[in-house]
């Protein structure tokens, strides 16, 4: 399952796989985490990692397939997304204030570039089409702004997390 976890000013792409009945393997930021999740009460889980370290997490369901989670006195929004949805929200958190770098959510070939440098774009607008596994994935922007830089050309093969487009947020 692919997840997007949003903090106040950051966004993380996370992949979660079930290892056992209560065990999970999580890939985030290029690292792997293994833990067991045990229900404590409605809206609360106990997370136990391989070293036996235990943390409590509370959660509540919001709208639009989102959860609000609290861990170690910090709150996050958790969005459950399929691969295509994740592709449309592939925004890097490594950015300068007000400038976001769109990265390839999966390896593939640039089938079409729909914008050019200096062009104004609106939230939800398709920026490019990425062909992966014989599927045409429309990559959209989550922000309105101006295209600062297009790093790729049509026909180019890109790897996962490769920089595609830089957007100055307006």
Task: Give a quick precis of the structure.
The chain has 1 helix and 16 strands. It has one helix spanning 83-88, and strands at residues 2-6, 11-18, 23-28, 31-41, 44-49, 54-61, 66-71, 74-81, 99-103, 108-113, 120-121, 126-132, 135-140, 145-150, 157-158, 163-169. The radius of gyration is 18 Å and the shape is elongated.
Structure description:
There is one protein chain. This protein has 170 residues and is mostly beta strands. The protein folds into two domains: 2-81, Lipocalin; 83-169, OB fold (Dihydrolipoamide Acetyltransferase, E2P), CATH 2.40.50. 4% of the residues lie in helices and 58% in strands. It contains one helix and 16 strands. The chain has one helix spanning 83-88, and strands spanning 2-6, 11-18, 23-28, 31-41, 44-49, 54-61, 66-71, 74-81, 99-103, 108-113, 120-121, 126-132, 135-140, 145-150, 157-158, 163-169. The strands form three sheets. It has an eight-stranded antiparallel beta barrel. The chain is elongated, with a radius of gyration of 18 Å. Residues 82-97 have low confidence and may be disordered.
Q: How are the SSEs placed, and which strands pair?
A:
Blueprint: E1 2-6, E2 11-18, E3 23-28, E4 31-41, E5 44-49, E6 54-61, E7 66-71, E8 74-81, H1 83-88, E9 99-103, E10 108-113, E11 120-121, E12 126-132, E13 135-140, E14 145-150, E15 157-158, E16 163-169
Antiparallel strand pairs: 1-2, 1-8, 2-3, 3-4, 4-5, 5-6, 6-7, 7-8, 9-16, 10-12, 10-15, 11-14, 12-13, 14-16
